[in-house]
Amino acid sequence: GPLRPRDRAWIARELARATDRNLPEVRRYKRALAARGMGPGLPSGRGRMLVKVMNYNIGLATELDRIYPGARFVGLVRDPYDICESMLARGGDPAEILALYRYFGETLLRLEQRGLPLKLVRHEDMVSDLARAVDEVFDLCGLDTRAARGLSLNDRERGGAGHPPADAVGVQGRVEGLLREDAGKTAPARLAPEMAGMIQLNCAAIIERFGYLAPTAMG
C-alpha cells in the first residue's frame, strides 16, 4: 500500500541531501556546456532533480508522484528474450529473472494506464536512433532539446579497438556512436526453447505492448 507520510518525508529529505551533494558535478556540467557555447540562453529559475529507480524500486514511482507534483517519468524497457539471455549468461536464476522482469514491466503498464506522465522508451529504439529518443524525453520534461545536442561529458573511454573517447564522439555529433549496433545481441548463452516458452507465458502483456517477437528458433 501507500507509504506513510513520515516515510515519504524521509524520502524527500534524503533526495534533497543527495541533490545537494551532487551540486558541484551539476555546476561542472553547466560550465562545460557554457565553454562550448551551449546551454540555455537564460536560466530556468527552477531546480531540477533526476531520480533513478530500478528493479523492484519502480514501485516508488507513485510515491515520487505524490512527493513531487508535476514530476515526469521515463520508463526504459528491453526485449525480454535478450535481457534474460544476458542475465543467464552471468549466472542469473531463471525464476528470479522472470519474476523481476514481469514485475517491472507490468508495473510500467499499470503506471501508464493510470495516467502517470510517463514516457516509455524501448532500449532497441535508443540503439537505433538515440538522438530521437533523447529529443522525445527532453520534450516530455520541458527541456531545451538543443541545449546539449551532440555533447557528452563522459570522461571515460570506450573499451575496445576503434572506439574513440566518448567526449570526441559526442562533440562531433555522432550520438549513435556511443552505442554498439549489436547491443543486446552478444550474450554468449543460448536461450533454450523451454526458457523462451516461459518468457512467452509469463510476459505476454509486456511482449504485446512493446511489440517484441519470439526468437526465430521458436518458430
TrEMBL record:
InterPro entries: P-loop_NTPase (IPR027417). It comes from the Bacteria. Pfam families: Sulfotransfer_3. This is Sulfotransferase family protein.
